[in-house]
Amino acid sequence: MKKERLYPESKVELTPFVARNYDVLLKAASLGRYRSFLKRAVEDMELKPGMHILDMGCGSGYNASLMLPYIGDHGSLTGLDISPEMEKQFRKRFQNSSNVSFLNQRIDIPFDLGQTFDVVFMSFVLHGFPHQVRDVILENMNRHLKPGGTFMLLDFAEFDLKRMPRLHYWVFTHVECVYAFDFVGRDWKALLSGKGFIHFNEFLYLKNYVRLLKAKKS
Ligand SMILES: C[S@@+](CC[C@H](N)C(=O)[O-])C[C@H]1O[C@@H](n2cnc3c(N)ncnc32)[C@H](O)[C@@H]1O
Question: Exposed site from 66, 122, 185, 188, fewest CB < 10 Å?
Fold first, then answer.
């Protein structure tokens, strides 16, 4: 049976094939650079032992596996995703980790897990939704963050599509979707300030096309 996609133009609602092979495809497409960039980004997150992390749109759990050594056995990580293929990989990866859990939970509709976290992390998910849906996702993020907790958004940075070198433009506009084109043109610090976030800190990677944006909930 064909799975219904809510946002047919989006590329974050992955096909089963892409979901099954996501990590390998990224590694190959980036000529091996994706993994070293991710390691740096996770270092820059400055996670501490005992932290509780919510990973919205967690995928296969590869990012989570890089975060776990920092938070240790007293920390925890909860991953949310809707893809059965991602769930399978995530559960297999963490079958022996009692401090890691997975929930099949849509993040684009309001939900409440009944607990708050030190960190809410979102990696390459937010750009793939229509802007009004991003508002719902950010409300979900905010609801699950402790006061003083940190939102960590790893995603495309802000840049002007028209000023990209031709090859980069061609790749971006062929690989990404219209929602991503909109995402890179927005001022995310201003948007998050408007939602009560403070103390922004950012790190740029991969020719400044990718950013880890950290913001504290006031
Ligand atoms: C581009 S992948 C990124 C995966 C992971 N965060 C990473 O950086 O490797 C996007 C992920 O978002 C998940 N996703 C898409 N729509 C979702 C939704 N409405 N609710 C929860 N997860 C969703 C997909 O299944 C996929 O695992």
Answer: 185
- 16-217 architecture in CATH? 3-Layer(aba) Sandwich (3.40)
Q: Are 68 and 97 in contact (CB under 8 A)?
A: yes
Q: How far is the CA of 187 from the centre of ligand 1 (A)?
A: 22
What's the pTM value of the predicted model, to 2 decimals? 0.95
Closest atom of ligand 1 to CA, residue 13: 15
Query: From CA 206, how far away is CA 165, in angstroms rounded?
Result: 14
Burial 138-156 (b: 16+ CB within 10 A, else e): bebbbebbeeebbbbbbbb
Domain ranges of the chain: 16-217
Which residues have any ligand 1 atom within 6 Å of their CB?
Answer: 12-14, 57-59, 62-63, 80-83, 86, 106-108, 123-125
Rounded distance, CA 108 to CA 179, Å? 14
Encode the chain (218 residues) as per-residue pLDDT tens digits.
456 778 888 888 889 999 999 988 888 888 778 889 999 999 999 999 999 999 999 999 999 999 999 999 999 999 999 999 999 999 999 999 999 999 999 999 999 999 999 999 999 999 999 999 999 999 999 999 999 999 999 999 999 999 999 999 999 999 999 999 999 999 999 999 999 999 999 999 999 999 999 999 99
Residue 175, Cα to own-chain centre: how many angstroms?
18
